[in-house]
Amino acid sequence: MIEKNWIKEIWEWIYCILIAIAIAIFVKYFLCTPTVVQMDSMYPTLKQGDRLLLNRTVKTFKIQLKRGDIITFEAPTKEKYSDMENVNLNNPVAQYDNNKTSLIKKFNYNVLEIGKKNYIKRVIGLPGEHVQIIEGKVYINGELLKESYLDESVTTEAMGKFYDIVVPENSLFVMGDHRSVSLDSRSFGCIPYSKIESRVAFRFWPLNKFGKVE
Predict the structure, then answer these.
(1) In a domain, 10, yes or no
(2) Could you tell me what percent of the chain has a pLDDT over 70?
(3) Range of the domain at 184
(4) Segment 150-160, tens digit of pLDDT
(5) Whose CB among 46, 105, 153, 185 lies 3.0–4.6 Å from 173's, allowing a Cys bridge?
(6) Buried-exposed string 85-103: b where 16+ CB fall within 10 A, e elsewhere
(7) What CATH number corresponds to the domain at position 54?
(8) Please, where are the H alpha helices in the chain?
(9) Using CA atoms, how far apart are residues 24 and 19, in angstroms rounded to an integer?
(10) Which has the closest alpha carbon to 111: 74, 58, 77?
(11) Which H or E run contains 32?
(12) 4 occurs within a structural domain
């Protein structure tokens, strides 16, 4: 009797642990997850070491994003094009070639995010909008984009090949606030909605900057 109770207790613990893991994965993938900023492409808005809470519901419920939102997305397979390479400016969508074949590989990559590389950038251009970069400024449908989140000294260089394009449907044109070092849509094209992971909800560290990130 004692041995049976011991075995039953072990199975109850295993069951509880599995339930807890399942709930944690569900929350992380579908609702929200914390992250740490590791690069300088959003400086000074975000700095290395800042800790953020990411809102995953934008992907789960396909919530419409707006200009100025700070989002995370899967890094494109091809991040830069050489001067000699041709690109299709009629369909300037970032290239992704990392499709996983087996269910286990898909689960590890998409849910556990093993081996996945994500970027964090700001939404600049929305579907159907004409984005142009001219003399260090950004224009949307011919009108100068006012970017209050940038330092006055910041200029936006037309680096890469995607600096005069119309954003395709179900895609976004994104850039980092630290324009001189940011690898973004200017280099690899627009990000499909299907590759968007989350929107930044708020910053919880450092404590003196706790709150919503604009």
Answers:
(1) no
(2) 98
(3) 32-209
(4) 988 899 999 89
(5) 185
(6) eebeeeebbbebeeeeeee
(7) 2.10.109.10
(8) 2-26, 57-60, 103-106, 185-188
(9) 9
(10) 74
(11) strand 32-36
(12) no
One-letter amino acid for residue 89 of the chain: L
Question: How many domains does one find in the chain?
Answer: 1
Place of tokens 């930044």: 200
Q: Give per-residue pLDDT as tens, 82-98.
A: 888 889 999 999 999 87
Residues in contact with 190: Cβ distance below 8 Å, sequence separation at least 6, in sequence order:
92, 93, 94, 125, 162, 165, 167, 168, 171, 172, 173, 174
Length of the chain: 214
Does the residue 21 lie in any domain?
A: no
Locate the DSSP E strands across 50-195.
51-55, 70-74, 118-125, 130-134, 137-140, 143-144, 164-166, 171-175, 191-192
In a domain, 12, yes or no: no
